[in-house]
Amino acid sequence: MIATLTLLCRAAAAEDPRVKGSTGFFDHYCGECHYEDQSGGLDLGVLDFDPDNRDNFATWVRILDRLDAGEMPPKKRTKDRPTPADLAAFTHTVATSLTNFEAGVTARDGRAIQRRLNRYEYENALRDLLNVPWAQLKDKLPADGEAYRFNKSGEALDVSFVQMERYLAVADYAMRQAMSAAFERPRNTVRRIYARDAIGQRYRPSENGTLSDRLMFPVLDSHAQPEVRAGRAPNSSPATREREAVGKVSSIFSDAGGYGWGFNAPAAGRYRIRLKGYSIWVSGGGIGRWFYEGQGEEKAPVYWLPVWHRPNADEIWRGRNDEPIGIYAQSSGQTRPIGAMDFTPKPTVGEVDVQLAAGEAIRTDAMRLFRTRVNGTDEQYVNPLATKEGMPGYAVQWLEITGPLDDARTTSGYELLFGSLPMRRLAEGEKGGVPLETVVPYNPPPVGGFSGLAAFGVGGPGGFGRSPFSNVRVEVQSASPRQDAERLLRHFIQAAYRRPVEEADVQRFLGLFEREFGLGSGFARSMLTAYTGVLVSPAFVFVEEPRGRLDDRALATRLSLFLWNSTPDAALRARAERGELHQPAVLRAETARLLEDPKSRRFVDAFTDYWLDLRKIDDTSPSSTIYNDYELDEPLKTAAVEETQLFFAELLRANLPARNVVDSDFTWLNERLARHYGIPGVVGARMRRVRLPADSERGGLMTMASVLKVTANGTTTSPVLRGHWITERILGIETRPPPPTVKAVEPDIRGAVTIRQQLAKHRDNPTCASCHTKMDPPGFALESFDVMGAHRERYRAVADDVKPEPGYGMNGQAFAFHYGLPVDSTGEMPDGRAFRDIKEFKRLLASDETAVARNLARQLVVFATGAPVRFTDRGEFERILERARARQYGVRTLVEEIVQSELFQTK
Amino acid sequence: MNTKYRGPFIATRKPLSRRRFLQGTGVGMALPLLEAMLPRTARAAASAGAAATPRRMLAVCNNLGLRPDLFFPASAGRDYQASPYLKLLDAHRSAFTVISGVSHPNVDGGHPADISFLTAAPHPASSSFRNTISLDQYIAERIGTLTRVPSLTLAVNGAARGLSWTGAGVAIPPEERASEVFNQLFLQGTPEQVEAQVRRLDTGRSILDAVADQAKELEGEVGSRDRGRLEQYFTSVRDLERRLQESREWERRPKPVVSYPAPADIANPAQYMDKLKAMYDLARLAFETDSTRSITLMLNSVATPVVIIPGETITDSYHNLSHHGKAEEKLAQLKVLDEWQMKLLAQLFDGLKAASEQGETLLDRTMILYGSNLGDANAHSTVNLPILFAGGGFRHGQHLAFDRAQNYPLPNLFVSMLERMGLGEGKFASSTGAMRGLEMA
Q1: Best of A160, A252, A289 to disrupt the B interface by mutation (most B CBs within 10 Å)?
Q2: CA-wise closest residue to A155 among A890, A843, A866
Q3: Rounded to 5 degrees, what are φ and ψ at B103?
Q4: Are B325 and A207 an interchain contact pair (Cβ–Cβ within 8 Å)?
Q5: pLDDT score of B390
Q6: Is the CB of residue A329 less than 8 Å from the CB of residue A356?
Q7: How far apart (Å, rounded) are the C-alpha atoms in residues B269 and B175?
């Protein structure tokens, strides 16, 4: 059959059909437009049949689909149409050829080719195996390639020597982390650090030119302490100690802003962090800026005039609102958010429970206050939250850290490596051993005293002082090293490999131990050498799947890589070993168990990272001239990403219909994000499920700030780029890239012309229109949203001769933009149905819930199996949808039915 | 902390992504890996560059910068009027270019911006900041195995903060002990030490042997396309083994002999200028002996106490002086420190000029970038950075003055530097091209 078709096409290509008037189907019905490329780029005259070439294969599938859908030949062509019989004969021929070819490939190689673990999976696998949940490993591995939009296909998951080298380093690092966790484990300690001790006494400027917004000030029971601030009364006294606080009206712009507490986690592990404080209100009219004269003892401040928007720290009142406070972990200059809480006008204690790496420092910071800096004049920098009546601020009393909070599993990583063999510190001069990084113990300052201040490095910016780490070398003691080695190694391979231990592997890696031990490297180093071999070996790094139907072991691995983004746990492996997993009921039960485990959040995060590009949230930043109201607004960005993750997690948890992807009556918000969306009644930093007002334009993924941000460039939005993104990701329609000769249409920020006006010309060209009629509608509908996803009626523009809008960004800089031309968010669907705005657009889409479900299921199939829904998969894929239809394509049902399908259970 | 960066050197540049490569062809298909998509190995670079002139780079960041009023010349061009600070470098006027009106786009945040000085990664103070590869590591990845050490990451007063970041955005801890660097480069290890290091490399190779074995066995069990994946794994293992072998050869090769006394470590951070001079001396020695081609030096002035300067009275810490608020006394003291920075640079230039290589001065073979992440430390401003660019075989002797209101991208200088090294790809971080007005001699 292939031969026939090939012949047919070769003939068509070789001879000019118009001259010959030859017999082929194309000659009759297609050639008029599709020979010599007279229309949209498909030239049937030269089209070969070369299914090994994926492009060529896809072209034939597309031809078939368009004929089947009746889109071709075009309706306007009235005479000389193929009879149904002609058409059926031809499409049958093509379909059979395609099917035969693909079935051959599947028989030989399976649907997907073998792949290695991607770096998300490798990190999770090591974290789970060695019980080192804090270990940051992903970023130490090279970025993974993408195929079919995910990092799950062997076609893109290459291995280079860089990859190998990083595997070696990461495996060694993770194992030494597990050893550190068991080394001279510090006791669970409660450390309460009083703000007055750790960060107090920076009440007056120590440097000339410091803006007063950045200074801290003493607060007691929501009141100022002018005497303390002036240095005429002690910073702290035993009678008031518990109630003393330190206040501030600004947030971090840079290092000098937030509170560093002088605490470094003494060991990796779980900690409970509690923070006590409250919100305050501070009068304005403070000193604009200090200047000093003189040196040493002679030094005295010279004041400038009071300024209304600068704080007067000697006039403090009870807070008028809540203040969200962020808690961050920091090491080597890089910070990660670990929690948030709200300070209310009354003192409250917030609590977060987190995994910290050894040596990580804790910082706290108000999330929405003025992000001030030292440079600039009073005219240039104005606290955007200041009013004539004063400004909001916060006062913090203490930070309390409890931990490390150990449990039975704390040292399980070490036990996996060395069983119950003891570890000891090597003395100076002793040879060999394994180096571990330990943290120099923290000594809390004595209660009521301030002697600890110097040790905290107070006075300088954080992260510039000493490193909290010191190195020790350790050795593991074994009385009978060779026996211990074999016993431990056998156990380790069994835990690490997702298949039974093969004797050849034991001998292979035992050989590494023997060699190393024989050279005198010591027991611990020799064991780590053997283990490193295991963790970088193909049997660990690659996903081993037999051809054809997966056996239970391969099924277990596929299931856990799907739903946990990690390797199977003991329970799942046990089911597989007993040979039960392929039983539909068992598989269903395990699917449910994995989804209900907190580890399923890894699936949600990894899936949305790729499907919705959430991993690119920081790829662009808001323009400092047009959007400086978003500049430095980390809390908004963080909430936006969380909204999307939590939303998808909720679809999965509650098995909500897939159409929610397009439109939903709820989403997840906190106060900051709700304000961004203009939704009232959401108070506090905590993300929670919120029912949307009936007339809200939010709901579904398309109108989420995260999606709207990753589809914009920080300065402008393009309906083409956004439209293309939505068409592919949400609607599941692939469009081909533009011909290389076409110049991109760039938005103009001067405000004289809209992108839509610029595009109009482009769309008039029929070649362009064939794709743009599909791509542009969602883009047009989303023109109502700016680069960060806020609603807009008009575009923002910058021009020298137009007065900017009044107002200040979070950074205190005046706005530079003005409002320009109005937004037009109307459009029409490819089938001609018109919409006025995004709400109507969503309604039109949601009316076809099967289409929405089909796209989501396609994305899930790639994520779960590493291969897209191929031509020959279509039947089984439609059966998945069919089985989910009764539940309105519940997202969880889709996941379950994918797991039950042949697509999932076949390599 | 063990801060030596030695042993096998591994390219970490993100290779041309398959996806980008395939954009022209539509969908991603399984093509064989092309040469250009692999990280460039030392061998590839060697074949292109071994015969070529060796080029080197030293990048220095003083994280409190210099007083802009005394550093920047008032006039631009080749006949610019030397500023007070630049007068101290007058003997080398034809050997450097002073650059104004430049900064890294979107690199803000005040002090923390020093870790972006050689990476140009935006928003270093943000709570989700991840750093990217630094210029020196970009160079070291490509030509690192041509020399004994791929690169040196040094610091004065700052074991906690360096300028070098790997392709994975991981900080390379800087070395601030001159003796360690000296030993690494010039002190012949005892046979045991050499053996220990060789054994370490051999351990890596034996691990690779073991896993390669397993890969070969598995290949027999899988289909043809899957076999391709395992073969790629196998090839990667062999590639890495070869690189370990190259590093191993360096271990066996005797270290160069220099007539320079082994330096003693200066523990007192107040002896900032002595520490700085020691680092400059080491950099010169490393280049003279072709021990490395790429060095970074972080001058952590922020973490420096009251600096001891013989014959001068300094009363405040370096950081405190930088926030002078225009107080005369502080300005005067800061000027003393700044002038010392210039004097030590002049000495470094002298030393590099006195050494020659194949008939050229070492200064002509060595690019020196001296600058800061702060344009004006008094205001924590991260624009209008003070940049002095010397040596390396450029047409110097000019003041390149860019727009002080709309800064020109500093990463463009990095592009020019890479071109000079023969590693130009026209792009580094947020660059927009090579540096305008900077020509090779």
Answers
A1: A160
A2: A866
A3: -165, 170
A4: yes
A5: 98
A6: yes
A7: 14
Yes or no, beta carbons of B27 and A159 under 8 Å apart: no
Under the banding of pLDDT at 50, 70 and 90, the label for residue A11 is very low
The pairs formed by B246-254 with CB atoms below 8 angstroms and a separation of 24 or more are: B246/B8, B246/B42, B246/B145, B247/B7, B247/B8, B247/B9, B247/B145, B247/B201, B248/B198, B248/B201, B248/B202, B250/B148, B251/B194, B251/B197, B251/B198, B251/B201, B252/B194, B252/B198, B253/B148, B254/B188
Q: What is the DSSP string of B112-130?
A: GGGGGTTT--S-TTSTT--
Mutant choice from B207, B214, B329, B376 vs A, greatest count of A C-beta within 10 A: B207
Tell me what pLDDT residue A44 has: 79
Q: CA A538, CA A560: separation in Å to the nearest integer?
A: 19
As a whole-number percent, the residues of chain A with pLDDT over 70 amount to 88
**Interface A:B, Cβ pairs < 8 A:** 274
* A28 min Cα distance to partner chain B (Å): 29
Q: Quick one: average pLDDT of A720-733?
A: 91
Instruction: Please judge whether B125 and A253 are an interchain contact, meaning their C-beta atoms are less than 8 angstroms apart.
Output: yes
> What pLDDT was estimated at residue A744?
66
Q: Which residues of A touch B324 (CB under 8 A)?
A: 208
Amino acid A8: pLDDT: 44
Q: What average pLDDT does the structure give for chain A? A: 86
Assessment of whether the complete model's pTM goes beyond 0.95? no
Dump pLDDT digits (tens) for A60-115: 888 888 888 888 887 777 677 788 888 888 888 888 888 989 998 888 888 998 99
Q: What is the pLDDT of residue A740?
A: 56
- B206 and chain A in contact, CB less than 8 A: yes
pLDDT of residue A430: 86
Q: What is the pLDDT of residue A634?
A: 86
Q: Which residues does chain A have within 8 Å of residue B15's beta carbon, measured at their own beta carbons?
A: 160
Across the interface, whether the CB atoms of A544 and B129 are under 8 A apart is answered no
Distance (Å, whole) CA A256 – CA A104? 65
Examine the pLDDT at A21 and tell me if it is beyond 90. no
A97: left (phi over 0), alpha (psi -120 to 50) or beta: alpha
The β-bridge relationship of strands A250-251 and A370-371 is parallel
d(CA B157, CA B318): 12
ipTM for the predicted complex: 0.83
Measure CB to CB from residue B303 to each of A161, A164, A465 and give the nearest one.
A465
Provide mean pLDDT across the span A646-650.
98
Contacts of B230 in chain A (CB under 8 A): 114, 538, 542
**B376 contacts A114? CB cut-off 8 A:** no
Residue among A463, A634, A736 minimizing CB distance to B160: A463
Touching check for A41 and chain B: CB below 8 Å?
A: no
Measured CA to CA, the distance from residue A56 to residue A836 in angstroms comes to 39
Question: B229, A115: Cβ pair inside 8 Å?
Answer: yes
Closest CA–CA distance from residue A236 to any residue of chain B (Å): 26
Write out the DSSP string of B178-203: HHHHHHHHHSPPPHHHHHHHHHHHHH
* Tens of pLDDT, residues A417-474: 999 999 999 998 888 899 998 887 655 443 333 333 333 333 334 445 556 778 899 9
Q: How many CB atoms lie within 10 A of CB A330?
A: 20
What's the gap in Å between the CA of B329 and the closest CA on chain A?
A: 7
pLDDT of residue B424: 83
Q: Under DSSP, is residue B71 helix (H, G, I), strand (E, B) or coil?
A: helix
* Segments of chain B with pLDDT less than 70: 1-51, 127-128, 159-160, 168-170
Q: From CA B15, how far away is CA A252, in angstroms rounded?
A: 36
Strand partners of residue A343: A323
Q: Does B104 touch chain A (CB under 8 A)?
A: no
Residue A375 near chain B (CB below 8 Å): yes
